[in-house]
Each structure stands twice: as structure tokens, then as C-alpha cells.
What we know:
The complex is a heterodimer of chains A (about 250) and B (about 130).
Chain A: H1 2-9, E1 13-19, H2 26-36, E2 41-47, H3 53-59, E3 63-67, H4 73-86, E4 91-94, H5 106-111, E5 118-122, H6 135-151, E6 163-166, H7 167-175, H8 183-194, E7 199-203, H9 218-237
Parallel strand pairs in A: 1-2, 1-4, 2-3, 5-7
Antiparallel strand pairs in A: 4-6, 5-6
Chain B: H1 2-22, H2 28-46, H3 49-58, H4 63-118
Helix pairs in contact in B: 1-2
Keywords (chain B): Coiled coil, Membrane, Transmembrane, Transmembrane helix
InterPro entries (chain B): DUF2304
Organism (chain B): Agromyces cerinus subsp. cerinus
Amino acid sequence: MLELIMNESLGRVLVIVPAWNEEANVGNTVREIRSRAPQYDIVVVDDGSTDKTARVARDAGATVIPLPINLGVGGAMRAGFTYAQRHDYDAAIQVDADGQHDPAEIVRVLDGLSSADISIGARFADKGDYEVKGPRKWAMLFLAGVMTNVAHTRLTDVTSGFRAGNRRAIDQYVRYYPAEYLGDTLDSLVAAVHAGLTVTQIPVAMRPRAHGTPSQHPIGATIYLLRSVFALGLALMRPRKATGGSAA
Amino acid sequence: MIIAFGIALALILVSIVVYMLLSRKLREKYAILWIVIGLVVLVLGIFPQLLEWFTVALGVQVPSNLLFSLAILLLLGVSLHLSWEISQAEDEIRRVAEESAILNAELERLSRRIDQLSMPTPEEPETPANPAA
């Protein structure tokens, strides 16, 4: 009951779906979001796809932002946040096109915004049966530990893309949202915390990708570990910008 | 012979830079460094004893070592500068791409709205007032 009231106070919400060559999944994802959360507007950011992602998304009833070149998730998300800012949305949430993020959990992740500026849907928060092992797991544990210290709140899954932000977060993301690999999740979060925004996490269950498989190869996972340490190290060493929440 | 070659090289370098500047193929901020390099090569070509003088003054053993070190240092600076410029250019391209995509979405929204307004809705059977008839 209380959750319902809080959710209504959020106002207009934009669901941002970054999609790169996801014609097999994006249609279902959009339709599922529409059926689970019909009150929210959906925008699919087509990240320079070479397949029919844009058309499939449009046919499914989403607004499409067609990037002319592939920019990576960071570029797609900043385009989405810029769109949200210009259309005066009160909150925005990222939902991946591959079907990993359960649209049924959107409302719950958005509820996190009642207590913080950024709300992360986290995999390992004692819910769901998502399992990783080896270097990738070490990387995730290490990143979670460091980010918990930085954000002064317990975070277990900081590379999760399933995250929502309020107006302050949208403004911050439009100012700074790196396009680099891992920069989109880690660096943007560090920068937001340094700018004075608060973070919370909501336990969610992740689903396996509908089509295609993520890389679980040990070498790939080790490279992932090194790159994430590098990205996070850089983000933490950057000088803190003065909290300019009101500066547009 | 080698002195003439050095002078010729310097002259060619400077004239290429000046030509590219005149034909707007090279922007000023990149040109200055190349003009300086060209002039240094030219001066060293005309007065080779300058190099020996600097070698002694700086305490370097062999003149060629000084020349090579300076060349490597300069090229390092140039390539670092180019990496920096290209990073900035990529960032600008990214902004422009995002902007054009958003405008594309707006355009589509507006043209769909215009289509809705200009076309009679299929639900309505016939408009009662028909000025053409």
C-alpha cells in the first residue's frame, strides 16, 4: 500500500531500453514492459544496429532513438537520459533489451527511488539463482566491496544495468556518462556519488538471456576483471567535482 | 652532400606545411609544431656546428645521440597530442550522434502527429461539411 503511494509520487517515468542488434529479443521485451507496466513510456535506443532492431521496436509500440553509429551502452544510455531530461520525465530506468531484466521487477526497482537518487536492481542480494564463478566472480566481489565503501551503503552488484534514477540522477547522467566499456556502470556511479547523489539497491532475480549466451570463458573473464579494476581505479582517482546539482 | 640533403628536407617540410595551411588542409594548432620542427631542421642543416656545440654544452657523448633523443622526444609529443585530439573528437562525434538520434525520434513523433491531424480519422464515416462538393 505504502509502495503504491510512493510510486505514484514518482510522476512520469521513462523506460530506456538500449539495444544493439537485438531484433530477436527487443520486440518481446517491449511488449512485456508494456503489459507489466503500461503507465510508463518506453524508448528504445537503437545503438547503430545493422539488423531490424529499430523496426521491431517501433512495431512493438516503443519510441525509437536511432543512433547513426554504434556508441556502446554508455552512449545509448546518455542519449536516453538526454531525451528524458528534455521531455521533463521525473524518473528513468534502464532495462536491457536481451530479456535479462524482468519487467515485472521495474516497479520494485523504481520504489528504491523513494529513499535514494539512484536505485540498482541487484542480482546477488539473496534472490534469484544467477550464478557466476572464477575470475568474473572475484571481479564482481571486488567491485562490490569497493563501491560499498564509496557509496556508504551495501552494494552487491555494481555492474548491473538494471538501474533507475530520479531527476537529479538524470541531470548528473546527462552531464557525465562515459561511453567506455564498464565506464557506463562503474564510472558513472562513482561520479554520481562524488557529486553527492545517494544510491540504494533492490534485490531482483535476473533471467537468462532469451537468445545468445554471455561470455563465461576464463580468459574473457580475467580480461573483464583487469578492465574493471582499471576503470574503477581511474574513476576513484578523478578529482571530485563540486556538487552542482542545481547547475543545468 | 648530406648537408644539402638536410637543407632540402627542411625546405620541403616547411613548404608542405605552408601549402597545407594555405589550402586549409591543416589547422593552425597542428601546423605550429611542424613549422618549428621544419625550422630547427633547417637551421641545423645550414649550421651543423651548432649541433656539436650543443652536444658539448649538454655533456652528451656523440652529436647523433642528441639528435636522435630530440627527434624521439618530439615525435612522442606529437603522437600524444594526436591521441588527445582524437579522444576529444570522438567525444564530440558521440554528442553529435546522440543529438541527431534524439532529433530523429522527435521528427518521427511530429510527422506522425501531423499525419494524424491531416488525415480524416477512419472511425468517422463522412465529414458533414464538404466544401469541395
